[in-house]
Every structure is written in C-alpha cells, then in structure tokens.
Amino acid sequence: MSTDEPRMATQYHDASNLNARIALHERFSTNPRSLPLWIFDQLELPDDARVLEIGCGPGNLWADNAERIPDGLQITLTDASPGMVREAKARLGGSRSFRFRVADAQELPFADGSFDAVIAAHMLYHVADRDKAFSEIVRVLRHGGRLYAVTNGMKHMYELAPMLRVLDPEWPHENIGADLPNFNLENGTEQLAPWFDQLTSLRYEDSLVVTEAKPLVDYLLSGMHAQVLAERMPGEEFQERVSVLADSLERELASHGRIRITKDPGMFVAASPARTHDRRSPSLSCQSRFGYTPGVRSARSVLVGVAWLLSAILAVLWLGVVALNIMD
Known about the structure:
Helix content is 46%, strand content 18%. By secondary structure, it is of the alpha/beta class. The protein folds into two domains: 5-156 and 179-208 and 263-280, Rossmann fold; 285-327. α4 links the parallel β1 (50-54) and β2 (74-79).
C-alpha cells in the first residue's frame, strides 16, 4: 500500500503508535470540538446510507460518534492492517451497523456502485498509487456519491521538525510527516480533480498548547522515523539523544510555561461523476454515451453548414433568374 510498505506494516501493526499520537491531541488541543466530531459534522448522509471507510484504523471516528450514528446506516470498515481491523471490530463489532474487512485501497473487494460515501481519513498520503485508489473509489461509489478525504496542510505541526532533528540531525523535511507531501491540503485538489466533480475543501481550526514534555517525546518516539533510528543506533546512543530532547523541552517549558504547536487538518469533499469512466479519456466517454466522437460530430456539423449555405445561394440565384424573366 505504502511507498515503504514493510515499515508501514510495522508502524500500523496495531493501534499502539497511533494511540500515542492521538493522546497528545486529546489532551492539549485548543478546539473543544474534537477532530472526529468535526469530521462527522461534515458528513451529509441519508439515515440508510451505505458507507465505506478505507484506512479505518481502530475505528476512532465511529467510536467517538457512537451516539450519533443512525440505526439504518450500513458501515463497512477496512484497513490494510489486519491488526487495525481486529481492534476496530473489538470496539464496534457489537453493533449491527458495522462490517469489517482487510482491504487495500488500491484493490477494493466490492462491486461497482456499492456505497453512497467513502471516507479516507489521514491515509491517502500513505498510498503508493493514488490514481489507482481514486479509480477504485469512483468505481465503488454510486453515481453522485461522495468522497470525504481528510488530510493535513504542509504547516501541520511543523514546530516538531526541529525536535525530531535532536534525534536525527539529518532529518530533511519541513515537518515530521515524511509522506505528507504526497497528498495534502495544498496539492489534493489537483490530484482529485481528474476523478471527481463538485470538489470543495474545508479546514478545521485548531492548535496544541502543550504543558508537559513527556507527551511530546512519546509522540515523536511513536513515529516511523524514530523507530527506524532506534533499530539502527546503538541503544545507549539513542537513549542519550532521547534524554537530550526531553531536557530541551523541559527547559523550554520552564522558560515559557507552554509550547504552542500549529495544527492544519482539513477535508476534501468530492462528488463521484455521473459516469464512472476514466475522466482523462473524454472522447471515449462521449462515444460510448452518445454514439459519436466529438471530432466526427464537428466535421459533420461543418459539412451540413456548407450544404445549407450552398442551397441558400442557389435559391437566391434562381429567384433572380425568375425575376429577370418576368421583367422581360
């Protein structure tokens, strides 16, 4: 699924790493309405809608909104990680609304037009072939169904990059999400536009005000890069760098009382096109729907116009000849 599939499989083997990151947001976010609640607020679904979530993780979106889910909603939760699907099923499996399946977003095991909505929250930047995933999403959506794609802007938590460089001075990225440049709020429109109609973007206003060092350290250590460093470095050297990081954060907190961190999550809402053809082959789609190609129709239109003009000229000439004969 990912451009670094073995490491991704380790990172998301279960929800432990993800939960360490979620804990920081739950404790120190400034927006009183959490991101899962905000995401649910944006969903425009009939009470009997068929919903697919790809990359569902441990099912946090639905667990956090459990009391808001209509009885008739039919929800299929999928993830490429069997461990994540097991955890989601353990949390939500008691409800008749949910079905669970291990699945890759690039090869969805569902029939065409199976769903009214697809949700992809903070996962598309991990997908190696996003065009293939978009094609699959369009295929399984009913005509006019919607994709809700949640991702982050490039400034999201950029203040953590210098902290990560304490662990790895050679960290080259502007933020801690190495995969974020693949699909973010700045470039997502360009990627989605060939596949979807009525594309809009929404931003969720929030930030972190952190007053303890340990949750920040835990957040950084839960990431894939820190775990790769821990595997490559001698244990004592890695722990020394972790201690340096913790000490620097403690000094910052002692000096300023808090560490403010930018957050920039948001969502794309995109409607499935009326026809599930390859949006990048419009001539073929016209031929299949109307029985002609645009080029052929244009040529026919020109010929008809020329024939009409010649007929009009001949009619004028004939009237002129008749008028002359009458005058004679």
